[in-house]
């Protein structure tokens, strides 16, 4: 709703009230319509200020209402009537003015912002465009290039940048409403014709066609199949080329297509999923709101390889003092040089001083005696990690949380090396750790809720999206990934090429296909793990191991020294070691032909649909198993992990959401088909949770938690 009062004698004050972000729900829109009318009818009121309660102007349309049928006054005429008002309307912007919130402010005649406020039109991130006049008013106010940037990226700008761009008229460090009221008093009675943005001509752009062609090309490239950024460009083009009313018609037309699209549903689901994962719960019943984190003032990172360096830099950038320990003196010196450069580059980008003094470097584990939390990031070897945990348990003060950055080893085995296994959790970062947003917080059977709460809170402080998951081989992300990469290798055996598979995956929306990604990460990493597991045996090319289908193709490449980009050869050929541009490699095609001939395999034509189904559906099936096993609390956890850690296209929601969009019956039917065709691949057998969901009519993804809960309570 909205509250009305009169202050300073002649200023009508309208306060939006809908905690926590004053979203424009039907009730708020009705409140605005009613209070604006009241203010305009009150002869004592000469000007009007619109603000939001509790330091937030407005977080935009209420996204939760998008699924329901529309009720209440629509935004467009509401904003139009504010712009047409005959008394000056002033927006007092504190906190956020986003989406419909900024569109409301653009309908006002003046905008006063607090210096800490953030403004933006993030609709594109929800699969939409600013369709309450935002795509038509913003270019008229700040010009086409700047509006294109803001609308197609959805980025939030600071008040200072908003002032520079001309979005706001004044920035204050003091009480925003007071400043706005003072301003409103000063403009009372002044003419308003020149303040109505919709009447402005769009600033002229030289060679408009070239500008839009260029922008469209860039947007298409970065959109990876998302339709909203393209519609945003089209809407701004309408602003630049059509009169306002016709531009508004185009905006509406474009929005109508987006609003009901699967991509908008996926992106909006993802918005709420990101927030849902913060509300973690463990199978024991422990939860985010009943578990208190331990204070963490000083942190340590042990092992300064690529991961350790990134983690330490991310911690320092979050303002935490970090002690780093690396046993090898040469590696320590090299790490110090590289990390200092990383800190300097990061600081330059953010316009702050590099936090070099936050990190201290040591080769002595005894220096970790007084830290509150340690993140172990040594080589991925269980024996080595066990040794480190044993040492840490002896060296660190009682109560220190011991975390491992393993990407899939058993957290419980490491916990068993320590005096306090309840203080051990996994903190699985993704490379590069100072850039990637995802953190898997892995609890073992003995991890305490407090330890999980502490790691989750630390992740948040580091700006990560943290997801709490149970302990199993590969946790959530890598457990599912294994099947994806394995299926991709099987497809090569059956007739595909790395280029063909990668093209299908990239056209689906992943930034990189499975083979290109594998070349980037290094083929030797998986090879070493498979050798340790005695799955890969040099010189052997058997295609059945441990009773199930196995593809030795990756092992055979490694035996030839083809480790990917770093050796200049892998699934692709590179001009030199370390080069990033992958070229199709005739050697590899010949190698595949020979391999098939050796094993009596006849290459067949494999189409894009089969590639996607074979690569994605087994992953999804494993996702259902993960839910069934209670390793992830809900589909949102899996989807957030895949979007933020593995490049799953956000406009497809994540694997579990995607499954619900494709239709669970179809996923089930295709898995059954592929399992029948490949009975030596046990994981293709559809999981019982998937069967159960189909049996009860394929409820929407938001309802799966209930089904899982019932399933668990029946066990
Ligand atoms: C057929 C054609 C029909 C076409 C007709 C359509 C006409 C529609 C016209 C216009 C449409 C306008 C579009 C929009 O305005 S879309 C919304 C744009 N706004 C956003 O994207 C902002 C989203 N919110 C945020 O970025 C942040 O929440 C922020 C406001 C910056 C605050 O951040 P923070 O303080 O970190 O808090 P949280 O993110 O945790 O949020 C707190 C809780 O509030 C919920 N929330 C936030 N924003 C919204 C929203 N816009 N709608 C509903 N709910 C929202 C969020 O989920 C958190 O909830 P909970 O505590 O339960 O987790």
From TrEMBL:
Keyword Methyltransferase carried by entry = no
Q: Which reaction does it catalyse?
A: (2S,3S)-3-hydroxy-2-methylbutanoyl-CoA = (2E)-2-methylbut-2-enoyl-CoA + H2O; a 4-saturated-(3S)-3-hydroxyacyl-CoA = a (3E)-enoyl-CoA + H2O; (3E,5Z)-octadienoyl-CoA = (2E,5Z)-octadienoyl-CoA; (3S)-hydroxydecanoyl-CoA = (2E)-decenoyl-CoA + H2O
Domain 3-hydroxyacyl-CoA dehydrogenase NAD binding, first and last residues per copy: 298-471
For the 3-hydroxyacyl-CoA dehydrogenase C-terminal domain, which residue ranges apply?
A: 474-574, 611-701
Assigned GO CC terms: peroxisome
Q: Which GO terms describe its molecular function?
A: (3S)-3-hydroxyacyl-CoA dehydrogenase (NAD+) activity; delta(3)-delta(2)-enoyl-CoA isomerase activity; enoyl-CoA hydratase activity; NAD+ binding
Cited PROSITE patterns: ENOYL_COA_HYDRATASE
- Please indicate which superkingdom the organism of origin belongs to: Eukaryota
Q: Where in the cell is it found?
A: Peroxisome
Q: What pathway annotation does it carry?
A: Lipid metabolism; fatty acid beta-oxidation
Under Enzyme Commission nomenclature, its number is: 1.1.1.35, 4.2.1.17, 5.3.3.8
Q: Which UniProt keywords apply?
A: Fatty acid metabolism, Isomerase, Lipid metabolism, Lyase, Multifunctional enzyme, NAD, Oxidoreductase, Peroxisome
Q: Name one GO biological process term.
A: fatty acid beta-oxidation
Matching PANTHER family, A to Z? Answer: 3-HYDROXYACYL-COA DEHYROGENASE, PEROXISOMAL BIFUNCTIONAL ENZYME
User: How does this protein assemble?
Assistant: Monomer.
Similarity comment: family membership: In the N-terminal section; belongs to the enoyl-CoA hydratase/isomerase family.
**The protein, known as:** Peroxisomal bifunctional enzyme
Source organism of the structure: Channa striata (Snakehead murrel)
């Amino acid at each position: 709703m909205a509250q009305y009062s009169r202050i300073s004698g002649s200023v009508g004050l309208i306060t939006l009230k809908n905690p926590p972000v004053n979203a424009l729900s039907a009730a708020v829109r009705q409140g605005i319509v009613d209070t604006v009318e009241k203010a305009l009818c009150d002869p004592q009121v000469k000007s009007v200020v619109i603000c939001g309660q509790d330091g937030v102007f407005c977080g935009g349309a209420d996204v939760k209402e998008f699924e329901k049928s529309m009720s209440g006054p629509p935004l467009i005429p509401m904003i139009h009537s504010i712009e047409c008002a005959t008394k000056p309307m002033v927006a007092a912007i504190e906190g956020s003015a986003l989406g419909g919130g900024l569109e409301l402010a653009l309908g006002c005649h003046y905008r006063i912002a607090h210096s800490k406020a953030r403004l933006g039109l993030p609709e594109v991130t929800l699969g939409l465009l600013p369709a309450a006049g935002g795509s038509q008013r913003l270019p008229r106010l700040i010009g086409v290039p700047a509006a294109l940037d803001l609308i197609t990226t959805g980025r939030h700008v600071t008040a200072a940048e908003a002032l520079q761009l001309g979005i706001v008229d004044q920035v204050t460090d003091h009480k925003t409403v007071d400043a706005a009221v003072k301003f409103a008093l000063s403009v009372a009675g002044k003419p308003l014709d020149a303040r109505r943005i919709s009447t402005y001509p769009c600033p002229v752009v030289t060679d408009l066609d070239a500008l839009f062609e260029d922008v469209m090309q860039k947007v298409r490239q970065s959109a990876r199949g998302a339709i909203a950024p393209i519609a945003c460009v089209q809407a701004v083009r309408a602003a630049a080329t059509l009169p306002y009313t016709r531009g508004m018609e185009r905006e509406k037309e474009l929005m109508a297509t987006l609003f009901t699209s699967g991509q908008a549903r996926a992106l909006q689901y993802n918005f709420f999923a990101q927030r849902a994962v913060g509300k973690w719960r463990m199978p024991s019943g422990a939860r985010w709101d009943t578990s208190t984190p331990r204070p963490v003032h000083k942190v340590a990172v042990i092992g300064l390889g690529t991961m350790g360096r990134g983690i330490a830099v991310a911690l320092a950038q979050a303002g935490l003092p970090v002690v780093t320990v690396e046993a090898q003196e040469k590696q320590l010196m090299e790490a110090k040089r590289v990390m200092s450069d990383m800190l300097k580059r990061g600081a330059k980008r953010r316009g702050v001083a590099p936090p070099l003094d936050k990190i201290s470097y040591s080769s002595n584990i005894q220096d970790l005696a007084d830290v509150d939390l340690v993140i172990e990031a040594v080589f991925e070897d269980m024996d080595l990690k066990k040794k480190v945990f044993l040492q840490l348990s002896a060296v660190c003060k009682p109560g220190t949380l011991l975390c491992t950055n393993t990407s899939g080893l058993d957290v419980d085995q490491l916990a068993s090396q320590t005096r306090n296994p309840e203080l051990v959790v996994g903190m699985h970062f993704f490379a590069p750790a100072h850039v990637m947003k995802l953190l898997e917080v892995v609890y073992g059977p003995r991890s305490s809720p407090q330890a999980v709460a502490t790691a989750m809170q630390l992740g948040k402080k580091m700006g990560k999206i943290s997801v709490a998951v149970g302990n199993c081989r590969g946790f959530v992300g890598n457990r599912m990934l294994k099947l994806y990469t394995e299926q991709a290798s099987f497809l090569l055996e059956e007739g595909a090429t790395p280029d063909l598979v990668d093209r299908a995956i990239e056209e689906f929306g992943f930034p990189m296909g499975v083979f290109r990604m594998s070349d980037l990460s290094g083929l030797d990493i998986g090879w070493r793990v498979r050798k340790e597991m005695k799955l890969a045996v040099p010189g052997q090319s058997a295609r059945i191991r441990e009773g199930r289908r196995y593809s030795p193709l990756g092992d055979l490449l490694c035996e030839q020294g083809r480790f990917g980009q770093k050796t200049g050869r892998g699934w692709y050929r590179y001009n030199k070691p370390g080069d990033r541009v992958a070229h199709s490699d005739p050697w590899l095609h010949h190698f595949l032909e020979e391999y098939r001939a050796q094993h009596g395999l006849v290459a067949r034509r494999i189409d894009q649909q089969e590639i996607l189904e074979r690569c994605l559906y087994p992953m999804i099936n494993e996702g259902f198993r993960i839910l069934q096993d209670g390793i992830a609390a809900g589909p949102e956890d899996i989807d957030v992990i895949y979007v933020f850690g593995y490049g799953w296209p956000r406009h497809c929601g994540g694997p579990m959401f995607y499954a619900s969009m494709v239709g669970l019956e179809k996923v089930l039917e295709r898995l059954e088909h592929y399992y029948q065709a490949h009975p030596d691949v046990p994981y293709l057998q559809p999981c019982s949770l998937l069967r159960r969901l189909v049996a009860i009519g394929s409820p929407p993804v938001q309802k799966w938690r209930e089904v899982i809960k019932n399933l668990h309570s029946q066990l």
